[in-house]
Design goal:
Elements (H helix, E strand, L loop, with lengths): L3 E4 L8 H15 L6 H4 L11 H9 L5 H16 L8 H10 L3 E5 L4 H10 L8 E3 L13 H10 L6 E5 L2 H10 L2 E4 L15 E2 L8 H12 L2
Parallel strand pairs: 1-2, 1-4, 2-3, 4-5, 5-6
Helix pairs in contact: 1-4
């Protein structure tokens, strides 16, 4: 029996991943270089596997100021992110989950300070019973299952009693490794990833009720 939904944050509740890509595309464009999305995807939902500055350095063969470039990225990125609102369908699914008596949590690879800033800005500070980040699990990031296990422990439920909503391959692997069901909701940046680990893949949280989603999940998993 499903008792809880555990949301990812970046790319699922708020599309920060698109902002990151747009910011780097703008910087790479100044040097007439294409931004390698397929390499950047290695970072999504996890850690810093691919370094875009080092890659730009190799492409251009120029002497570049790392501090200057990374500060430019932060300014562009934060400028975009601070205009972002909640992704389509998220608020509706939160409200529906509460009507159904389901518990709600967030499990994120981002640090606590990131969510402490954005959850109030988005009006979501009091919507979740439990919020767990990499800060709570010694900076262990997805696909490590630690943050999902911490979220379930905080809700006082077994992992198999929860469904994770994820937008990234790393996140899906983390959720399944922790023992949760996983519904993948890819976005513009992650839709080409391999979501074979997920139990179900949907295009958006908008236009589908939780009841319909759980029916599809049951049909896929037989549980």
């Amino acid at each position: 029996m499903i008792k809880a939904i555990v949301f990812d944050f970046d790319g699922l509740i708020m599309n920060t991943e698109l902002a990151d890509v747009l910011a780097w595309q703008q910087i790479y464009g100044r040097f007439q270089q294409p931004f390698p999305l397929e390499l950047w995807q290695q970072n999504i939902g996890s850690g810093n596997v691919f370094n875009p500055f080092d890659h730009l350095l190799a492409l251009t063969g120029q002497v570049l100021d790392r501090t200057e470039i990374e500060e430019e990225f932060r300014q562009i990125d934060h400028g975009i992110i601070n205009t972002l609102s909640v992704m389509p369908g998220v608020l509706e699914r939160i409200a529906e989950a509460k009507q159904l008596g389901l518990k709600l949590a967030i499990a994120s690879s981002s640090p606590a300070r990131w969510l402490n800033y954005h959850l109030p800005r988005l009006g979501l500070l009091f919507e979740f019973e439990v919020v767990r980040t990499c800060t709570d699990v010694d900076d262990r990031k997805k696909p490590d299952p630690a943050v999902y296990l911490a979220a379930c422990a905080g809700l006082n439920i077994a992992p198999h009693e929860a469904v994770a909503f994820e937008d990234s391959m790393h996140g899906a692997h983390a959720a399944k490794a922790a023992g949760l069901y996983c519904v993948a909701v890819p976005n513009e940046v992650t839709h080409t990833m391999d979501f074979g680990a997920a139990d179900l893949v949907i295009n958006s949280l908008a236009g589908i009720t939780l009841t319909e989603l759980f029916q599809q999940l049951e049909a896929q998993t037989g549980n």
